[in-house]
Design brief:
Layout lengths: L1 H26 L3 H13 L8 H14 L3 H13 L5 H15 L7 H15 L15 E7 L6 H11 L6 E7 L6 H7 L4 E4 L5 H10 L4 E4 L10 H4 L6 E4 L14 E5 L14 E5 L27 E4 L8 H13 L4 E5 L6 H12 L7 E4 L14 E3 L8 H8 L4 E4 L8 H8 L6 E2 L2 H13 L1 H17 L5 H21 L3
Parallel strand pairs: 1-2, 1-4, 2-3, 4-5, 5-6, 6-7, 8-9, 8-11, 9-10, 11-12, 12-13
Helix pairs in contact: 1-2, 2-3, 3-4, 4-5, 5-6, 11-15
Length: about 500
């Protein structure tokens, strides 16, 4: 008996030491070493059964950081499937898994919808607030977000907080993020009310929103950031609820009434993929407001490089093997052209992995430049002529940044909201001819553009002007369109039978 207890104690000590080394490697940026240690711990069954979810959580996250989604996804699935007492943590893990599924080229729209339905099953029954229908002079709009800080989502939401019609609307900001900064203080001062709910339970946060008598609650995050906003929205603290901008698929929640889209990103066939009603704006569902870091490049003048340089500045996890194969074909069509890939995260290990994947896809290493993420990444756009969008998880912020920096973007339009960002953004910028419907057309479009030096030079000059003059940067027009949608759905709610 004693020897058994001693053996368990020794195994636990071995586990704690080994796990501590894993965490030390991660903190030092040694992801490959951490992964090897975890794989050895899995092989020797060192993880206690009740903590197996941690093994998969760490392995999945590391593999994601290393842009190996094929290997990461089975682990990330285990994180939420394995039982544990903390339901909120399991829900967050499932939300993360749903996010990562969008990187996978092999998953179907139907499979994605079913995966989102699993969230509802895991959530179970949650009591919801009852609402009395009311009319008042000003419609009260609440925005729920973990990203009221220096975050790309804020670049797409800031106009909703700053340019609203104060004679007809009141705006309440609900912040559940943990990275408040000077930007947070600046944004908080724009609205009628700001509340930091980051330390509240979902139930308490929902109660606060309900007490404020919000008419329409806009969830700006969906399943991103661990689905924190959804764990609040499920209580139905407002009679009408919308999701969008920060997420690009159905939430799966019956408590969510609408999802924000437009006629390009969400053609009629998209309706079947959402539990929500799609609220289609007449032009763009996204409005881009560049941050101060872009100011240095407002008068940018560029000329095409010789030979031309293709680029992608998306998260390396978005770059599938299928995309690398298409990029290899583009390089074959345009002899001597170069490809520059810049990650969103720092660190060199992922560059090695990406280089190996690129070679396997048929890309000559002599024609490939790999760069880690950096704070001054905008200057890297100066080294590129044409941006190649990823698929099926497309660029939103990166595409708008590229257009603002004078670079044409070639995109492949898919069959779901998150795979049609590029089509909507480019069409609204007046560049719909750069939207391809097939992989073959994508290759042809990119190759033809690179070989037409006069057209490329003209686009380098015209694209920034087109971007600034487009609905994508018409903050006032965008907010008026959103407010008209608010009025419409509120009247619909008031006139619906109880």
């Amino acid at each position: 008996m004693r020897s058994g207890k001693r053996g368990k104690k020794n195994k636990h000590a071995l586990f704690e030491r080994a796990f501590a080394r894993v965490k030390k490697d991660i903190a030092a940026g040694r992801m490959e070493a951490a992964l090897l240690r975890l794989q050895e711990m899995e092989r020797t069954q060192l993880f206690p059964e009740k903590r197996l979810y941690e093994l998969h959580e760490y392995m999945g996250q590391i593999l994601y950081w290393l842009a190996d989604l094929h290997e990461a996804l089975p682990h990330l699935k285990q994180v939420w499937e394995l039982p544990r007492a903390d339901l909120a943590a399991r829900l967050a893990a499932l939300s993360n898994y749903l996010m990562y599924l969008h990187y996978d080229e092999g998953i179907t729209n139907e499979e994605l919808r079913a995966a989102h339905a699993a969230y509802v099953d895991l959530l179970g029954l949650v009591p919801q607030f009852a609402h009395a229908k009311r009319r008042r002079e000003k419609l009260r709009i609440g925005y729920l977000s973990p990203n009221i800080t220096d975050h790309i989502v804020l670049n797409f939401a800031i106009q909703l907080f700053s340019a609203y019609d104060r004679t007809r609307f009141e705006v309440y900001l609900y912040d559940i993020g943990s990275l408040q900064c000077e930007t947070t203080d600046w944004v908080a001062g724009m609205a009628d009310s700001y509340a930091d709910l980051s330390k509240e339970t979902p139930a308490a946060a929902a109660q606060r929103i309900y007490a404020d008598e919000i008419d329409i609650l806009f969830d700006l995050a969906g399943h991103s950031e661990g689905g924190k906003t959804l764990q609040i929205s499920v209580y139905k603290p407002a009679p009408v609820q919308i999701s969008g901008i920060g997420y690009f698929n159905t939430t799966g929640l019956s408590a969510m009434d609408y999802f924000l889209g437009d006629t390009i990103v969400d053609p009629p066939e998209m309706d079947a993929l959402f539990t929500e009603r799609i609220l289609r704006l007449p032009e763009t569902h996204l409005c881009f407001t560049p941050s101060e870091r872009f100011r240095a490049y407002e008068q940018l003048r560029r000329m095409p490089h010789t030979p031309p340089v293709f680029g992608s500045f998306n998260n390396f996890a978005k770059i599938t093997d299928e995309m690398l194969a298409l990029w290899a074909e583009i390089l074959r069509r345009v002899p001597e052209a170069q490809l520059l890939l810049k990650n969103v995260r720092p660190g060199g290990e992922i560059l090695v992995r990406m280089g190996q994947r690129a070679v396997r896809a048929g890309i000559d290493p002599a024609r490939l430049t790999l760069r880690p993420g950096s704070k001054d990444y905008l200057r890297d756009y100066l080294d590129v002529d044409i941006i190649l969008d990823t698929y099926p998880y497309q660029g939103g912020g990166t595409t708008c940044e590229a257009l603002f920096m004078g670079l044409p973007v070639v995109t492949l339009a898919g069959t779901r909201h998150g795979a049609r960002f590029g089509a909507s953004l480019l069409a609204n910028a007046g560049l719909g001819e750069l939207v391809a419907d097939t992989p073959e057309a994508y290759v042809e479009c990119a190759a033809a553009l690179a070989q037409d030096v006069e057209l490329l030079a003209a686009l380098h000059t015209a694209v920034p002007r087109m971007m600034r003059a487009s609905p994508l940067m018409d903050g006032g027009g965008y907010v008026r369109a959103v407010e008209a949608a608010y009025k419409m759905i509120w009247e619909r709610y008031l006139n619906e039978e109880a």
